[in-house]
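The records we work with from here on pair a chain with its fold. These numbers are not coordinates but entries in a learned vocabulary of local backbone shapes. To see the layout at work, look at the sequence and tokens printed below.
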Amino acid sequence: MTETAPRPTLEAVAARAGVSRATVSRVVNGGDGVREPLVERVRRAVEELGYVPNQAARSLVTRRHDAIAVVVAEPETRVFADPFFALQLRGISKELTAHDNQLVLLLTEGRDDHARVGRYLAGGHVDGALVFSLHLDDPLPELIQRAGVPTVFGGRPGWSDGTSGVVYVDSDNRGGAREAVRHLVGLGRTRVAHITGALDQTSAVDRLDGFRDVMTDVDPRLVVEGDFTPAGGERAMRELLDQCPDVDAVFAANDLTAAGALRVLRESGRRVPDDVAVIGFDDMLPVAEQTDPPLTTVRQDIEEMGRLMARLLLQGPAPGGVVLPTTLVRRVSA
């Protein structure tokens, strides 16, 4: 067996730099009042000795943990199967890493998990929370409020007591939906359908509202509820073809839904875009460029949304919402 070398101590750094232990502590913990030459001596000693601050002890001094909780209100089977979450987490991770913060991922499978997340946040383990994919009946907002941690939400909040004092980052879901449907109408399509997302989420509601802004007198059979998944897109497309076989265009609430709809259209012998034009939402390249045919879709910058959420939290969030623009990306499907 080999013996592990002793971990360098604050005292060892102080001795190497020729300063007091208190001076080293102030430099390591980001305190003020130390002259620049001494700061450089301490930093050089830290590097030479390979000193790593004890995070637990440092937290007692600074009351910071340099850790941020990322709470996704979805089960792990959904999070790890949907590229949307990977893109948003990548943006968050890049921003936190750039500021030397750790990401702590918390997922919710059910009510017991909500309580667990609430206890964790209230326990003082993290400096703040980034929360997204909330559902309208989700207890997380109340639990987070009780925990008293600074929070930024991904997506426009939709709980009944309003959004006063809430910080959030969202995309222009309604405007993007309007642009997509106007494009379909501009192609001469007259039987335009919409496969919604899960309507207990504000993004799905906003996209449905955008569809209705353009299709003001739509046949109610042309609106079918989905759930943001390929299976939901398949199920809804079969229902549309059964109830409205003359449908000539589909605006799907996201790219995964559109991918499911495209599979059913292909199986039914419908040509895309000749017989039925299809538009999605998100522009997730692993999906949109690999569908058959490649998917026309509304682009939202998912990774930038994640980065901006993290940036707002680290800066000290001021109440209000930030809504990022969307753009229509034309490919073959419409």
Q: What stands out?
A: The longest strand covers residues 67-72. The mean pLDDT is 88. Residues 83-98 form the longest helix (16 residues). The chain is about 45% helix and 15% strand.
